[in-house]
Amino acid sequence: MFDLRITIVQFDQIWENISANYKRIEHLLQNLPETDVIVLPEMFHTGFSMDTNLAEEWSNNEALSFLRNWSSKLNAAIYTSFMVRENEHFFNRGVFVEPSSNVTHYDKRRSFGLGGEDKVFTEGTTETIVDFKGWKFNLQICYDLRFPELIRNRIEATGEAAYDVLLYVANWPNKRVLHWKTLLRARAIENQCYTIGVNRIGIDGNNLTYSGSSAIYNGLGETVIELNDQESVQTVILSKSDIQNLRIQLPFLKDRK
After folding, report:
1. What is the pLDDT of residue 227?
2. Global pTM value
3. Is 108 a catalytic site residue?
4. What are phi and psi of 5, to 5 degrees?
5. Where are the extended beta strands (E) located within 170-249?
6. Is 142 a catalytic residue?
7. Where along the chain do its domains lie?
8. pLDDT tens digits along 45-104
9. Are 77 and 103 in contact (CB under 8 A)?
10. What CATH architecture applies to the domain 4-255?
């Protein structure tokens, strides 16, 4: 069974300053140990902004070029999100960038009305699962975490689960961090998968404070790693055999109707 090395990058995003965020990420990714997947927070190079002047055309954008370059350089996939413009609509778009330059995208399906996101961005309509290195990743973004009906895992006709890992990238404020921790753990338990949540730290342009608490939980809801409120880059190993054995020993997914 192929184990997976995954790196979570928790940092203080500089509000609406694309070039400064590029420099910060470049610094954090230097001297990174060998890894398979790197996860950055939501809207990685702007913070959770509603300023669509910062959006680039999907067909030609610098953000994607930046991610492709680092994915190739580190020979690792990268997952994050950023705002894009396509067909006169704006999207908070997740991108899973592979070292081959292949890109799979996912548009956030639940807009954060409390923050006005629903007035700016068009919601996505489809689930996106990526198969990479023998692992299946379900791509998610921040507010999606509150809606378990979006990502109910299931046993496919092949006899395998639809996915092995839930990936959440977020700008989740400190005032609701208890919800963040609780819901991440719940999604792991109910879907018998690894659940990964990568959040930012610091204070944004709306004076909201973020305490990080990026984390990885296994299919039993047990902690693989939990970060505090400091900048941190951590690499951990996920076991494919562990998640498969769990589903054999506790075949709850098969009972799902």
Report:
1. 98
2. 0.97
3. yes
4. -95, 120
5. 194-198, 201-203, 209-211, 215-217, 223-226, 232-238
6. yes
7. 4-255
8. 999 999 999 999 999 899 999 999 999 999 999 999 999 999 999 999 999 999 999 999
9. no
10. 4-Layer Sandwich (3.60)
